[in-house]
Amino acid sequence: MKTSSRRKFLATTTLLGTGLAATALPVTAAANKQLVHHVFFWLKNPDSKEDRDKLVEGLHTLAKIETIRKLHVGVLASTEKRDVVDTSWQVSELMFFDDLAGQATYQSHPLHLAFIKNYSHLWAKVVVYDAMEA
To answer: Are 15 and 65 contained in the same domain?
Structure first.
């Protein structure tokens, strides 16, 4: 192979390789920001351990939804009482999704709709906080 042909070949393959590598890079960080879905429940019978436990059981069924990356179901912690701490709720769920599309899938998923149908009689109020990773 002539020296000039070899140089052209090397230059061309280097450019092609760089182009292929650039297309294989992950999507930009802005498009890959995780979404957090935090829901607080106030029970109709706030002193009922039975109702609380039923709701907790129902929330755990949502873990089978394929777009949920992590699910944390919690009850009010016995932490220090401070003016900035809201202790009026009884149960919470915290979910992590890869993106907005994953959360949208969750909203219309049959398991989520069944959860609402089967457990909504237990709560008097629900507040949702959705946040994108900064």
So the answer is: no
- Spatial separation of the C-alpha atoms in residues 99 and 31, rounded to whole Å: 8
Into how many domains does the chain fold?
Answer: 2
Q: Are 75 and 37 in contact (CB under 8 A)?
A: no
pLDDT digits (tens, 9 = 90+) for 72-105: 999 999 999 999 999 999 999 999 999 999 999 9
The count of other CB atoms within 10 Å of the CB of residue 52 is 19
The answer to whether 92 touches 38, Cβ cutoff 8 Å, is: yes
Q: By residue range, what is the domain housing residue 5?
A: 1-27
Query: 95 is written with which tokens?
Result: 């979910």
The Cα 72–Cα 94 span in angstroms is 5
**What are the phi and psi torsion angles at 87 (to 5°)?**
-115, 25
CATH code of the domain in which 74 resides? 3.30.70.100
Compute the average pLDDT of residues 98-118. Answer: 97
Residues contacting 87, CB < 8 A, separation 6+ = 76, 81
